[in-house]
């Protein structure tokens, strides 16, 4: 196997759920890999589509699980959404279907969140969802508001083969009721990697996304011209990889195997 693309990689983007851990269960070798990456000459960012938590919440959570993590090591679809709104809809009145944590994140980017006369509806992985929010969002969308969503994931994986309905599923309900489709900001939108490339000065082709999901983690790398590593420790199995039209650059058992390869090349 030619691991040249991994050797050339300067920055790794790690998915978390299903890649480094599942729930509170940290995968074997995951912490060790993250601790050793700087010595191997590689930088890293924890990259998540989960818009139910803010970036700062991830720093706390990752450290609690034993992972090294500074502020510059975390990037979420919620943060990307805040940046996107400022660039593309400056000064817009935004109605949010999202958690309190997502609300705080958007406020930290200076976004104006309103309950009436919204120009933009933003939807996230809202684990605090109530019917009134859906009702209001549907109303604003039908009367002309722009539809933006943080992440397209249908479900969020949980331990014991359980899942939680995620942002994509909430958006499907709003599409059915309003007739409008959202513009998804998170993975697989290449915007996620383009923004990181701009922030770090590292070109896309020297960035590698590592994750367990073909339609987000791998697709974002393919869309952005970056390198991709699929790990089989999460929701994707070998049969799904074989059925996929666009294959990842590398398919590995888990991040421990990635660590072993990086040490050798
Ligand atoms: Mg995952």
Please explain how this structure is put together.
The protein is of the alpha/beta class. It folds into 2 domains: 124 residues, HAD superfamily/HAD-like (Rossmann fold, 3-Layer(aba) Sandwich); 98 residues, HAD superfamily/HAD-like (Rossmann fold, 3-Layer(aba) Sandwich). Helices cover 39% and strands 21% of the residues. The strands form 4 sheets. It has a 6-stranded parallel β-sheet, with helices on both faces. A 5-stranded parallel β-sheet has the order 7-6-8-9-12, with helices on both faces. The longest helix has 12 residues. Bound molecules: magnesium ion. Magnesium ion binds next to loops.
Please write out the topology.
Layout: H1 4-8, E1 11-14, E2 21-22, E3 25-26, H2 30-36, E4 43-48, H3 55-64, E5 74-76, H4 77-88, E6 93-97, H5 100-108, E7 112-113, E8 120-123, H6 131-142, E9 146-149, E10 155-158, E11 162-165, H7 167-178, E12 183-184, H8 191-200, E13 207-211, H9 214-224, E14 227-231, H10 238-243, E15 250-252, H11 255-264
Parallel strand pairs: 1-4, 1-13, 4-5, 6-7, 6-8, 8-9, 9-12, 13-14, 14-15
Antiparallel strand pairs: 2-3, 10-11
The chain binds magnesium ion (MG).
N-to-C series of helices and strands: HEEEHEHEHEHEEHEEEHEHEHEHEH
Structural shape: globular
Number of E-type strands: 15
What are the bound molecules? magnesium ion
Helical content band: 25-40%
State the CATH architecture of the largest domain: 3-Layer(aba) Sandwich
Strand order of the largest sheet: 5-4-1-13-14-15
Q: Treating each run of at least 4 consecutive H or I residues as one helix, how many helices? A: 11
Question: Can you tell me the number of structural domains?
Answer: 2
Strand content: 15-25%
Mean pLDDT: 96
Structural class label? alpha/beta
Largest sheet: 6 strands, parallel
Distance between the termini: 11 Å
What would you give as the CATH superfamily of the largest domain? HAD superfamily/HAD-like
